[in-house]
Write a structure and sequence with these properties.
alpha/beta; Aspartate Aminotransferase, domain 2; 3 domains; 14 helices; 14 strands
Length: 494
Amino acid sequence: MAKTAPEILMTFIKLEKTSRMPLYIQLYEEISKGILNGMLKAGDRMPATRLLAKEFGIARNCVIQAYEQLSIEGYICSQTGAGTYVTQIPDKPKIRVDHCLQDEVISISTNELPHARFAMQDCNRESFIPFQASVPSLPDFPFKTWGKIAADIYRNIHQYYLGYDHGQGYLPLRTAISDYLRINRSINCGPEQIVVVNGSRQAIHLIAELFVKKNSQCWMEDPGYNGAKTALAKFGAEICPIPIQTKGIDIDYAIAHYPNAKLAYITPSHQFPMGITMPLDERLKLLNYARKHQMVIIEDDYDSEFRYDGRPFAALKGIDTHGNVMYIGTFSKILFPALRIGYMVLPNRELAEKFTLIKAITDRQNPVIDQAILAEFIREGHLNRHLRKMRLLYKKNQDDLILLLKTYLGDKIYVSKAEAGMHFVLTFKNATHAEQIKRHGKQKGLTLYPIDHLSLQFHYPDSFLTGFTGFSFPQMEAGVKLMKQIIEDELSFD
């Protein structure tokens, strides 16, 4: 890049100062769209933050925040003493109106149950034991606020439609979700594209019903979410394990080994369980491949709201311009598991109607009153306030747990600190120690989930999925001491 490259004009940027969306997010989205649409090209020099702030009459800090997020996601880069430039990224998909998924929908499948290795042991009541993953901090949930909203709704329950509501979901909730996603996940969708479901698992089952054919191949992150493997295999899919690399799912490996796959399940914003965030160049590579090969991508965005370094990354769905991505989100992890409300974002109204039909066959609808409470909780701003509070708390929890592990276990372990999410990966440097924890941990009241239990082909025998969000400091300290005791007790019998 030439250091003397002229700064580009940003006349295509439109900011709405009266909008509820923060200005720095608007600016970030306008610039990222400009890069993806070719208005800004690799090597273009970005205006200085001070000049851009003056041009649009906004605070310089807004421009700095937008530039920082664009830099994190790989859209721009800074050169000391030379300015900020648009980076080189792969060929960008061009926007079109039609969607490739419509013709791929098939009739409901009735294939056999999956192989036993995909079976889930989730029928029992859940116990919150350190260091179980994806456990929210329930004592910090604003139950008084939730209860007040619920009381107001029940007090005025006669104003609600108390018959069977639309199977697609309570319209005010779908509208609230649409607004929330636009601001927080850079997904521009309308309520007509959203289907409310009973958590992410139901969403994956519905997708499998409509899109899986007998023996059709599906790329699956390995290690990856067992619930997705179960649902897809149940409807006849051939699960194709794809290794995880430093940029997330290994797309080149997937293409080379399973070129006939028409379905992919991925967790790009925070890979489960390894915690990797897929960078922009890999996201565009995947979208371009999906567009050319008519591939359906299931994006499970299960805990992306909790990012501890900068604001959450834009969802893959947010840059999908051909309708290849079906997005899944859930409130079970960010609020409380018993709520059992999730949602799907489909490429268009027609697909949403098809999914509504098969959901209605299964369970008719989600409870309207629960949806109404959640809709008000979001609309009144309580969700965003709660998320901001939890990000700070969970970041501290992670720092505390890592300090405890280093204090009590020293050089026996290695921790892959999480940039986002509700867990990190804990690895024992001595394989014997890992085996001891597997054998004795659960029976002594300790939950460390082996990564290998999530693997089909690519294994991590000495690593564990370790949750840090739902436990107090004393609980975490007791858990770490228990780990130390297990290791020391075993050694005493050698």
